[in-house]
Amino acid sequence: MNDLTEIQKLKLAVKELSVLNDIATAVSSTHDLDQVIELIVHECVNHLNVEQGAIMLLDQTETDDKFHTIIREVETETDIVPYHFGVQLSGWMIKNQKPLLINDIASDDRFTNLSDGEFPINSILSAPLKTKGKLIGVLNVFNKMSEDGFTPDDQRILSIIATQSAQVVENARLYDEEQSLKKIEEELNFATEIQKNLLPRSNPQLYGYDIYGKSISAKEVGGDYYDYITIDENNTVICLGDISGHGMPAAMLMANLQATLRGQAIFTSSAGECLTRANKLLYRSTDMQKYATFFYGILNTEESRFHFSNAGHNPPFLINPNKNVTRFTKGGTVLGFMEDYQFEEDSVKLHSGDIIVIYSDGITEALNEEEEEFGEERLLAVLKNNLKSTAEVLVENVFEAVNIFVDDGKQSDDITIVAIKKI
Amino acid sequence: MRIKETEKDGIVILTLSGKMMLDAKSAGLHDYVKNLIEQGKTKVIMDMGKITWFGSTGLGALLASYTSLKDNDGDLKVARATRKIRSVFMFTQIIKVLENYDTVEEAVAAIK
After folding, report:
1. What total of structural domains would you count in chain B?
2. Which of residues 396-415 of A touch B (CB under 8 A)?
3. Which domain CATH number covers B20?
4. Which residues contact B80 (CB under 8 A, 6 or more apart)?
5. Please, which residues 275-314 of chain A have a Cβ atom closer than 8 Å to chain B?
6. Among residues A158, A157, A166, which one has the least CA distance to residue A137?
7. B111 phi and psi, to 5 degrees?
8. Could you tell me if A243 and A257 are in contact, meaning their C-beta atoms sit under 8 angstroms apart?
9. Residues of B at the A interface, defined by Cβ within 8 angstroms
10. Residue partners of A285: CB distance under 8 A and separation at least 6
11. What is the pLDDT of residues B46-92, one digit of tens each?
12. Which domains does chain A have, with CATH numbers?
């Protein structure tokens, strides 16, 4: 009798090892989460002589909130686990985190509201999938095809399979997640391309003026935008804005803003009127949290005049050769905040040696390691030291000064400057 | 950024602290206010004395909160805005609609 038990034990051990070996061999061939799950389920169905099997994975993005559990199944036939039963089963497993063996499910009071007759499950054996002590899912087999139903030995084997395959499933899940992230990254790169195409490729070549602009994005897709729009041979729009937020929404709003402005610029020669119209259109097409600070200037080369309207943007500087500074503040509030808003405008006469510098807050708010801001004073000091430089050298020197200041601090916002120098 | 809520005579005072920049919590300020509106609380004071950094997301959340409250016959006032925040309010001309008060008590008196 004892000998027989020993033989049975040995047979069982060999069977367990062979199941594990089969699973290990099968899953080593793929990283794909669905395939890994399918292979494990397939092996369980074969070795435990059951009708069907399924793995349910817990959604790990909302670990604090168990009620947001999402069940992912791969099974030999569709809809093996009816929805309500699946919810009850995963709920039980989250609470108890141990194997479950039921041979007559209809009379088990742990699971209720299972419609008689149509319910496809008679017996169930489940084991938790755990990695590092954390429940990541449940391995289930249903309907044992023998009169005795599931045995404690079946439970032991399924538990061993669950223990051995949990890490494999987790690895595949992480791989799956990584692939999704890669896809998001690809989309972001695409948005970056869109945005780059919205920015000017070259600087306007206007007689008597030296103009240079540059923008560097902090993240894949930033919120800074600048543009040159030729209205006629004497008038060129030079504008710069900072759109709230980053990423795809900022890129979309930027595209929207560009289309709006380019449409308006031709119809009106007034900076204030153009912003008033653009604001209204933007207000109607964006959600409440989105807005843009925007500076809109029109350089009239014939009259040597610069007309402008400032929609809540950091006031640009006008510096003359004597280092006197004027700020361009006239205009109104940010774009996209109030629907009916009349933007004001102003203009200045430009003289030889005058420099206008339009910039985004990424410069003045650049932080060094001590979390100190670069600030307007440092910016102004660099500008005053470069009054005799070309627009390009001046702009590049500002970028260099910010880089030196930030040092190892990370660039957290976009940085954009446009300089207009009257020769 | 952290949000602490207190209530006084039916006026909600949100004490904001930390960095009001590009993160989910700052953007979530608008959701927080929308939730207050759903509860019928439409008079809100934001105490910004403990804000250490104020970026464009913070301003976006503030503007959206203001618009939502106004749309629901409510109001938003700001108290103890730091020098940096006041300068942003100035050049964005937000100051014309979003008034700042030196103390929470003054803001409460003004919103009543």
Report:
1. 1
2. 412-413
3. 3.30.750.24
4. B47, B48, B49, B100, B101, B102, B103, B104
5. 287-291, 293, 312-314
6. A166
7. -85, -15
8. yes
9. 21-22, 27, 30, 53, 55-57, 59-61, 63-64, 67-68, 91-94, 96-97
10. A256
11. 999 998 878 776 788 888 899 999 999 999 999 999 988 898 898 88
12. 2-176 (3.30.450.40), 190-422 (3.60.40.10)
CA–CA dist B86, B84 (Å, integer): 5
Query: Does A333 score more than 90 pLDDT?
Result: yes
Q: Which of B22, B26, B83 should we substitute to test contact with A (largest number of A Cβ atoms within 10 Å)?
A: B22
| CA dist., res. A187 & res. A185, Å (int) | 5
| Residues A363, A373: Cα–Cα separation, whole Å | 9
Cβ neighbors of A415 (< 8 A, separation 6 or more) are A215, A216, A218, A224, A360, A362, A363, A366, A399, A402
Q: What is this model's ipTM?
A: 0.81
Q: Report whether A286 contacts A253 (CB < 8 A).
A: yes
Residue that wins the pLDDT comparison between A110 and A302: A302
Distance CA A308, CA A267 (A): 16
Collapse the DSSP code of A81 into the 3-class scheme (helix H, G, I; strand E, B; otherwise coil) and give the result.
coil
Distance from CA of A290 to the nearest CA of B (A): 6
Q: Which two tokens stand for residue A111?
A: 């699971």
The conformation of residue A123, written as its DSSP 8-state character, comes to -
Interface contact flag, B60 A242, Cβ < 8 Å: no
Cα A243 to Cα A231, A275, A328, A348: the distances in Å are: 24, 15, 19, 26
